[in-house]
Every structure is written in structure tokens, then in C-alpha cells.
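Subject: DUF3391 domain-containing protein

B.,
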Amino acid sequence: MFKKITVNQAQVGMYVHKVCGTWLDNPFWTASFALKTASDLKKLQGSTAREVWIDTTRGLDVAAPDAAAAAAAEPATTTAAAAPRADAPLSVQGTAPDFRFKVEAPTSTSDELKRAKRIVKISREAVDEMFNDARMGKLIDTGTAVTLADEIAASVLRNPGALISLVRLKKIDDYTYMHSVAVCAMMVALARQLELPDHEVRDCGLAGLLHDVGKMAIPVEILNKPGRLTESEYSTIQGHPRAGFDLLAQTANVPDVARDVCLHHHERIDGKGYPDALPGDQISLQARMGAICDVYDAITSNRPYKQGWSPVTSLARMTEWTKEGQFDAALFGAFVRCIGIYPIGTLVRLKSERLAVVLDNRKSLLAPIVRVIYSLKSMVYLPPETIDLSLPGIPEAILSSEEEATWGIVDCGRFMAD
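Prediction pasted inline below.
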């Protein structure tokens, strides 16, 4: 159970789930920590923090008034302060309900791409280290994971499509790590589309970041095999959700929702998924969200065994799979609304027989802002021209989406920045 208290009420033996305020107010390097000694307590009470959330399932609760008075009347002893219960579960119930993301002004795709590139660089290094620790049998550093998920979420909340479009262009060698960043970003975007409260949005982002950590238990030669997997190899791959769950079950301060998404993001609404073949009504909302985000990023990414599909082609295929019973239909509809009919970074063909890249679809799903880059009549690149297709009187319109390879265009993403 979570409880907010003042720092003056804190005692040795309590478990601090979160320090209220900014990271600068936290005198410790980790988001959550036990107050094990008088020195820890003095450090907390001497900081600029004024309030903290404590987890009473992992440490002491605030003493009742009569108990506090009785304790004060007792003579001092040399007995050590009470420690957190040894049998307390490592799990926490999630982000404290009063959590709020910092409100920031929306940004243009071009501006957010500049910030997103920095986030992607940091994320690549942090997730690489985090997953390598998992491969070596070490526990996940939850504080690092939360901080990283918050950075990703902040970018998505400023501009839902910029970072998502950037991580779609990941290198094949980066897939395992950047896939987690992409799913984190899409989980945040989808959770926001569903109007979930901020503390649930945050937990969804962390769940996305950690959902594939079990792949660290899979031999690299199977993960990156360029050809078709054997039946035995596929069975090994199917073991990654359980392996990830087992790792997270040993890791402190991982929200239960993250463990659930890790274990069940390959379940299907029709009950044909794995590892537990759960029917749709037994799959949590967050695991159903994770299934959609995981597959979308997988099929839009280049892999050792196949070229990624365009966003529009991927959404069309997923629409078919939804009808066949793989995904939750209502959630998939919400996912399309937040990603867009023409997601950012999509190559489209205009009425004027020019190719353009979608820059922003927040104003209109069918008539986004695009950047014209290529003439199909002359077969030459054009000086980039930005057009808002939703404005009145604009003679242009999208005829279709196009595959980059069809026209020999490499990396549409390079045309998105100013």
C-alpha cells in the first residue's frame, strides 16, 4: 500500500517508493530505496524534499498516534531499528496515483526530431547496457529504466509521431534494443489516446521498454537467424516471455503491469497465442496494447530475414489479422487513430504525380502536412516543399502510399528535418 508522508514522519525501516518533486530533490541516486540507517534518514530529512511516498508492503508504516506515544515513553534500547519485512513481495502496485507528467508545449516534427535523436542515442546505450546485464544474469536497474521511459514519454507527449518515426528507421543490428524503445513510445501514445491517467501511461511506457527483456535468454544465432526457424528454434523463441517474466519477478520496483505485458504480449484475442493461450477476456488491457505495438514495430522494421513493410501496408495487414482474431478490434482502432492513416515518415503519392513524405498528421488523418521531394514525371528529386493538405483550396491530395524501394528512395527520414 502506498502512503504519502512528510519527510519529518519518515523513520528508519520505511521503504521510500518515490520522492515528491524533481530528481534534484532526491538525495539518493535511485528512484526507490529503503531507509536502513540513521544516516539514510538524516540524508533524506536534510534534502530539499518535503514529502515522499512510502510502500508499506516493503517497510514500516507511519505509527498510529497512541503507538507513537507509547514508543516515546519507552526507554531507549540498543536494539536495531526494524527492517523491511523479509517476506515482502518485490512487486509494487505501480506509479503513485498522484503522478503527473510535466506539461510541455507541443512541438513541430522537425523540432522534436532534433530532440528525439538525442533520446535515441541515449536509449540505445542504456538499453544495450540494461539488456547485457540481463544476459549476464544481473537484475534490471529499475531506476535507469524509469528515467529512460520518462524521457521517451516526454518526447511522445510533445509530438506523438517524431520519435516513433525515427526508431522505425533502426539498423538491423540495433533491432533488439531499439524495438524496446519503439514499443515504449507507442505504448505511451496509445495509452494517451485511450485517455488513461498519467500514472498508468507511465507504467505502460515502462512495460513497453521491458517487454522483450526475456530475449536475452535466447541464443543470438537464433534471434538473428536470416532464414526460416526450425520447429525447435521457434519453440526456443516462444520461451522468451516466460524468461522475461522470471527475471522481472526478481527485480524490485517493477510495476505488476510491466511483468504482465512481458509475459502476455504474444497472447491473441482468439486464444491461439502463447505462452498461456489465454482467451481475450483473460488478457489485460495493457497486454492487448503491447501485442499491437510489438507487432507493428516488428513488421515495419528491417530484419535479417525480411525487409520491413511500409507503415500503411503494415496497418492494412494488421487490419486483416484483427478480423482473424489476433488483436482487440477496439484497441487496434485506437492505435490507428494515434499512429495515423498515413503515419509520420510515410512516403505518399500525390495527385500531381509527385512523391512526398508525411511530416505531421495531428490536424488530419487523411490530409496531413507533407514534404514534396520527388517528381514521378521527370524522375528527379525536387527542392523540398512543405504543404498542409488540410488547408482550404489546396489542389493536392494523397492518391496512395508507396514503398520506398519501388522508386529507389533511400531513408525518407532524412527529408523530414528542416
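Residues 347-415 form one domain.

T.
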